[in-house]
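ok posting inputs for the guanosine-5'-diphosphate job
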Amino acid sequence: MRGKIIKGIAGFYYVNAEDGNLYECKAKGKFRKDKKKPLVGDLVQIQRLDEKAGNIEELLPRKNALVRPAVANIDQALVVFAAASPEPNLNLLDRFLVTMESQAIKVVICFNKIDLVAEEEIQRLKKIYEPCGYELHLISVQEEAGLEELKTILTGKTTVLAGPSGVGKSTLMNWLHPQANMETGSVSQKIQRGRHTTRHSEFFSIGNDTYLLDTPGFSSIFVEQYEPNELKDYFPEFSSYEEDCKFIGCVHVGETVCGVKQAVQEGKISKSRYDNYVLFYQECKQKKRY
Ligand SMILES: Nc1nc2c(ncn2[C@@H]2O[C@H](COP(=O)(O)OP(=O)(O)O)[C@@H](O)[C@H]2O)c(=O)[nH]1
Ligand SMILES: [Mg+2]
Ligand SMILES: [Zn+2]
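and the output
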């Protein structure tokens, strides 16, 4: 019987099987000889032991696998930031986008809490991210604005939900899947309650063939592991201007005749995106020296 691993805890894998049951499984199959470890999101072949237990016999081929969080077979990432409270950290968002581009994972960007900001701020965010080609959703979970449209893009897909703490990820999860019953609140409230922050990854099934994975919030992302010269490939809006660069392999930093720098000057590429690119480029270069 086939199924999908939706969570893993202490050596047990919980498999949502095609018969509709959830099986607690151990990894027993021959794939273990090849040192392959099942990941949450893996499609597997299981042997049923009883109505609640089974063994994983085979790992089916993966479409992709992410490192952080460690999950397989992702269709897309939904990255959530708040338009305000906390202020959107676009440097952090751009770092996240780079890591997803480098793994060829499609990203949908969502700014929540638009009830807290003026229309100008909404337009500012749109102007930065729309030209990059990312699908953008400006929502307010509190006022239930933009949620139905957002739900449509999740249907039939396996989506990783990511973003810093306090932006409303759990609130959104609870709206999409009330049974998830995620704890919400301000960061300080959670700390006061002494909440344990380490968590396992778990997929919630929010509809037919539709899965959502809530991940712990992140506060920093390193991009220095990339080759300085490859970093430009992870800014999708650069490519259409590269034909105007004088040098093949132009990295768009110090070169004088550069289509990308020209596009920044003309306002076709956002200055905020470009400045973060230069910053990340320098970080990668710095790292290479040691
Ligand atoms: N004003 C406003 N507050 C929101 C909205 N969505 C969530 N919040 C609040 O933001 C805080 C953090 O939400 P939470 O879901 O715990 O964030 P998480 O850390 O990303 O999971 C909570 O106090 C929520 O009530 C929204 O659309 N507007
Ligand atoms: Mg949360
Ligand atoms: Zn260039």
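notes: Residues 30 and 201 are 25 Å apart (CA to CA). Helices lie at 90-102, 119-129, 147-154, 169-176, 187-192, 259-265, 271-288.
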